[in-house]
Each structure stands twice: as structure tokens, then as C-alpha cells.
């Protein structure tokens, strides 16, 4: 039981030392992630469509 108490005490200590991002930075990072996901979604859809088109020609 003592090990569990020590573990959670250390977790609490580390969370206090963590530097959390500000609201504006978080919004910017979230928008960047969604933008990259949308780009790669369109890219892979287009690549798949092109490969399927080329394979249907053969």
C-alpha cells in the first residue's frame, strides 16, 4: 500500500511541475492537427482514386 501512495504522490508532484499550454496555443495546435489531417485525407483519397483509375485502364 505504501508503494501505491508513493506512486500517486510522485504523480501529483510531476503534474504540478508540468507546463501546460495556454488557451491560444492549444487552439492553434488543434487547428494545425485538423488541417494536417484534412490535407492527408484528401491526399490519400486522391492517390487512391488515381491508382484505382490507372488499374482499371489496364
From TrEMBL:
<keyword id="KW-0653">Protein transport</keyword>
<feature type="transmembrane region" description="Helical">
    <location>
        <begin position="31"/>
        <end position="55"/>
    </location>
</feature>
<comment type="similarity">
    <text>Belongs to the SecE/SEC61-gamma family.</text>
</comment>
<keyword id="KW-0812">Transmembrane</keyword>
<comment type="function">
    <text>Essential subunit of the Sec protein translocation channel SecYEG. Clamps together the 2 halves of SecY. May contact the channel plug during translocation.</text>
</comment>
<protein>
    <recommendedName>
        <fullName>Protein translocase subunit SecE</fullName>
    </recommendedName>
</protein>
<dbReference type="InterPro" id="IPR005807">
    <property type="entry name" value="SecE_bac"/>
</dbReference>
<keyword id="KW-0811">Translocation</keyword>
<keyword id="KW-0813">Transport</keyword>
<keyword id="KW-1003">Cell membrane</keyword>
<keyword id="KW-0472">Membrane</keyword>
<dbReference type="Pfam" id="PF00584">
    <property type="entry name" value="SecE"/>
</dbReference>
<dbReference type="InterPro" id="IPR001901">
    <property type="entry name" value="Translocase_SecE/Sec61-g"/>
</dbReference>
<comment type="subunit">
    <text>Component of the Sec protein translocase complex. Heterotrimer consisting of SecY, SecE and SecG subunits. The heterotrimers can form oligomers, although 1 heterotrimer is thought to be able to translocate proteins. Interacts with the ribosome. Interacts with SecDF, and other proteins may be involved. Interacts with SecA.</text>
</comment>
<dbReference type="InterPro" id="IPR038379">
    <property type="entry name" value="SecE_sf"/>
</dbReference>
<keyword id="KW-1133">Transmembrane helix</keyword>
Amino acid at each position: 500500500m505504501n508503494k501505491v501512495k508513493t506512486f500517486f504522490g510522485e504523480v501529483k508532484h510531476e503534474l504540478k511541475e508540468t507546463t501546460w499550454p495556454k488557451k491560444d496555443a492549444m487552439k492553434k495546435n488543434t487547428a494545425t492537427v485538423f488541417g494536417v489531417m484534412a490535407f492527408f485525407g484528401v491526399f490519400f483519397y486522391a492517390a487512391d482514386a488515381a491508382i484505382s483509375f490507372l488499374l482499371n485502364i489496364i
